[in-house]
Model the fold of this input.
Amino acid sequence: MTLPESQSAANESPTGLRLPPMPRGRVRELVRDPLNFFLNLTRQYGDIVCYRPAPDTAYLINHPDYIRHVLVDNNRNYSKATYSNQVFKRLVGDGLVTSEGETWRQQRRLMQPAFHHTRLEALDGMIVAAAQEMLSRWEGRYAAGQPVDIAREMASLTLTVTTRALFGVNLGEEVNAIGEWVNQAAVQFEKPSRPHVQESARAVRAIVEGIVQERRRDFTDKGDLLSSMMLARDEETRLRMNEAQLCDQVMTLLIAGYETTANALTWTWYLLSQHPEATGRLRQEVSALNDRPPAIADLERLPYIRMTLDESLRLYPPAWMLGRRALGVDEIGGYQVAPGTVMAICVYTVHRHPEFWERPEEFDPLRFNPEVAMRQNRYAYIPFGAGPRQCIGNNFGLLEATLIMACVAQRFELRLAPGSEIHPQPLFVLRPNRDLYMTLHR
Ligand code: HEM
Done:
């Protein structure tokens, strides 16, 4: 519940504009339990509240109108120069996630063709084949009555899909080095300079450099994302990306593309395991495919899978926190924003905003039924961000996740093996706090 202004810590700035409420001494909670810290701030103080993650001053903004203002309408006043972005830069260099201004605009133009639907349409067979390989391994587990660790399985599958989509080949052993690096980067996100994080980043960079150099020596368009990035020319300068730029972008896509999709799938299986009626509906939907492998043309026949994914991304958005820094003065909802202020958007709390979501804690895929979803505020649902910096891989991630779900649901039903309580752990992406062993059923 929002406190009336007089009871909150609202105060006035020298410009006459209000300053947001500023509760004191709560930063320890932020470190201990960020999701509840943000949830409690929004419940106690409303849609804009100031907190102080040293050395910054940050405004937590939770109203769709404020989010739209920062990410879309006045996006040019907001840079990505936050602490997390600096960490990201140390991990992947100057790729699409971290770059700014004209450099970013040029990079986005060069990268966009790789994600064009004609390129993505060619990937469905590869995604389904990778899922079938995993399912063949599961047959042995099923026969032996052994459970699978679904978080691990989804991570390994989406890593295979991401590397095949990028490079058009199976990487073999090298895939493990990439997986290890992304995992370390995720767990040690606050400590990117630790020697083993640096070391595994160097190892992955060497793999990526090797692939890029080989492709530059003997180029053919294999239809993969790297080919498309190598072919793209800037429309003004007519220049192509050089080797270092290609490596930065590949590193960026590896880190931005795979853990996010893996966790979206993991949370979806978890939610389905808690909701047998949704699992039944999903099974019914895939049975219409008559055991034939799904393809991109089947997406329109799989609306319930898509709604389930949308709902899972609402409850457990992998990219759970977005940040921007104000370049110049601004005003949001009558509150003053000074240059340098960090605008923090906790996607997890926005997706549970009680004014915009009925029964926000409840899992209900039907709220994404197109007729209902049409009435939803666009900026109350931002699993892929919004505005010019919106996720470039959103269609790819959704295509991949939908096809994987259809393949799995055609063969197995997953039930959660008993264990301790599961709750979200907000690392670099939102992960479950423990491994998720699931038993396989026909
Ligand atoms: C379910 C899966 C995914 C989720 C939830 C997700 C989420 C996001 C979000 C929220 C942003 C915006 C960040 C911001 O505004 O600060 C973003 C940006 C980005 N994502 Fe994704 N993503 C997913 C899958 C992918 C995939 C599959 C790829 C590529 C293979 C990818 C590549 C990128 C890149 C390159 C950016 C930066 C775009 C730019 O700044 O121009 N993502 N993602």
